[in-house]
Amino acid sequence: MNDEFPPQMPDDLEEDASIDAAKNLQPLPDLGLVSKLDASQETAALQVAELQREIAGLRSTRDQLQAQILEAQSSLGKLVQDGLSDLERRRQTLQVSVEQLERRQERIRNEMRTTFAGSSQEIAIRVQSFKDYLVGSLQDLALAAEQLELQVPQAPEKTVPIAETKSDFEAPARGRTTPKFADQSFQDQTQKIRSLIDQFRNQPDYYGPVWKLRRTFEPIHAERVSNWFFTQSGRGAVRTMGSRLQNILVASAAISILYNLYGDRLRTLILANSPERLGEWRRGLQDCLGVSRSDFGSDRGLTLFETPEPLALKADRLVKDGLLPLIVIDETEELISLAMLQFPMWIAFAPNPQQMSQTYLY
Hints:
single chain, alpha/beta, 7 strands
């Protein structure tokens, strides 16, 4: 019996053994939960890596944008600087140009106080004036030679001093019509002449049309012109104004009025005894009347002469052609040929008695 059945332990010892076994027993891990945790950690790691790559890309983009911004700012600054430099250069250039123009304006004003064209161009102008004068004279001489008729030599033509000429000098008219501006029958012309003189005085037009007076007209000039028209009937000597420029102004006013009355029929013949003086007359008439070089010539509105003989021939041809010559004599001409006094209109500038020569040829 004892070999078949082992001995039984007491109850209290069995209970202690079960307690010790329960203490030594540890729970087994849950494999499903472990796998889920590993997947979550791996996903989180992937997300972190992706975020880091995005952050790196954004940083790279930011650096590129910053570099582009800096480059654009640099380019813009350079462009602005170049623009400012160009504007500064242009400003300096314009300032220099303005200063040059101001100096030129002042120089021209100073030159206009002394001469019409300026002393800096005096030599070239004199040479060109002499050339034009020679061309016109040669043309007139050629025409005179063609129409020259040989005659028996006669006594020398008489001349009279300008100071002794009278406005009522009577010469054979040979059927010519002589304007008499003081006659009552020319009342319309008289009113028009007075109106033009008042307009020259009170309303000067410095940019008017050609053949209209373009200079300041003082009362003393108006008095000379009025006396020549209404007292001397367009034929007589006028006391010089003291300078050739002032005399040119008076003559220009008379020419302008006559051109307004007669238009292209008027032909003005200028007599002076040197090319230099003729050059001054040409420049003065250009300045006062706005005419150009093309208006000077043997078949033009203005013709220059150095001697009275070709002038008289030219005036005679003009009268025969139905035109109206106006003879203007410079103050340096002390004598007037009687051949010129027969024409309808002439104006001679007489020098002051104190300056007149005491020797005259008769």
